[in-house]
UniProtKB/TrEMBL annotation:
Alphabetized SUPFAM superfamilies for the sequence: Dimeric alpha+beta barrel, Globin-like
Keywords linked to the UniProt accession: Heme, Iron, Metal-binding, Transport
Organism for this UniProt entry: Actinoplanes regularis
Protein name: Truncated hemoglobin YjbI
GO molecular function, one term: heme binding
Key word Hydrolase present: no
The organism's taxonomic lineage, starting at the top: Bacteria, Bacillati, Actinomycetota, Actinomycetes, Micromonosporales
Length: 252
């Protein structure tokens, strides 16, 4: 991945510049080498703009996009502004990246550790009483519901206690290896978790439940795949971090 920054100083009609880029952007939208792009206007210095384009790689940009069919149409739209370019360079992203706290994490939205522990306590009551999956959990550690709450907390943006105290992803993976979970068992696990979520009044707004279900579907399908005989999952990986996806929480 490489990020291209192009800084413009437009001396005249900025509306025409923005319109030209609106047309040029249609070519970026169609380019498989383009991850995303954004044109920003400077609020302190009218006429100064920065275009950020993330490319799959510098080579893909130079050889793929510039050497490809879309470039002539793109260039035709922005050619009048080439002389207004003050900087045009590729930058490599560093490890310093993240998000702020303007959007609450799913962990906070759910109600934190207390809410997740309420969820898993009720869930495993339903699980052990269930004729299809109860037998799988016949010998489970009494701390199991709290440990799964810890895992979910970490996945949804809360404290990293499963990693710090319980061995993180490799330990969680180890609990599922060789279990031979079947699809009906996976589906029952999901159904019971959703029943428990309703019973303990986990937030039921569309955004939270959609994102929550997204993780549960992903996680249970991986648990099933990794539990099969001969499965070769990665032995080491970080605990996944699940976010809101395309529908962030509705805050009124
Ligand atoms: C999102 C999906 C899942 C998550 C987050 C999850 C989470 C976990 C965690 C964190 C543990 C280890 C608990 C500890 O550290 O004590 C565990 C163990 C286990 N899980 Fe899952 N799991 C998932 C799906 C499933 C499914 C679908 C099944 C079977 C239907 C299953 C069956 C088990 C079993 C049998 C154990 C070991 C229980 C024991 O201690 O005897 N898991 N799971």
């Amino acid at each position: 991945m490489t990020v291209e920054y192009i800084r413009y100083r437009i001396p005249g009609d900025t509306a025409a510049f923005e319109q030209a880029y609106t047309r040029a952007a249609r070519f970026l939208t169609r380019a498989p080498q383009c991850v995303d792009y954004e044109l920003s206007r400077c609020t302190d210095e009218p006429g100064t703009y920065i275009l950020r384009i993330t490319w799959t790689s510098a080579d893909d940009h130079i050889k793929g996009f510039r050497g490809g069919d879309l470039f002539p149409g793109f260039l035709a739209e922005i050619r009048p502004y080439v002389s207004a370019i003050e900087e045009m360079r590729h930058y490599e992203p560093t490890a310093v990246t993240g998000t702020g706290a303007s959007i609450p994490s799913m962990y906070e939205w759910a109600g934190g550790t207390e809410a997740l522990e309420r969820l898993t306590a009720r869930f495993y009551e339903l699980v052990v009483a269930d004729e299809l999956i109860g037998p799988l959990f016949a010998h489970m550690d009494p701390g199991h519901p709290r440990h799964v709450a810890m895992w979910l907390a970490e996945v949804f943006g809360g404290p990293s206690r499963y990693t710090d105290e319980r061995g993180g992803y490799p330990a969680m993976l180890g609990h599922h290896l060789g279990k031979g979970i079947t699809e009906p068992q996976r589906r029952r696990w999901v159904n019971l978790l959703l029943d428990a979520a309703d019973e303990v009044s986990l937030p039921d707004d569309p955004e939270f439940r959609a994102a929550f279900m997204g993780y549960i579907e992903w996680g249970t399908r991986l648990a099933l795949a990794n539990s099969q005989p001969g499965a070769t999952p990665p032995r080491r990986a970080p605990v996944p971090h699940w976010g809101w996806g395309v529908a962030p929480p509705y805050q009124g």
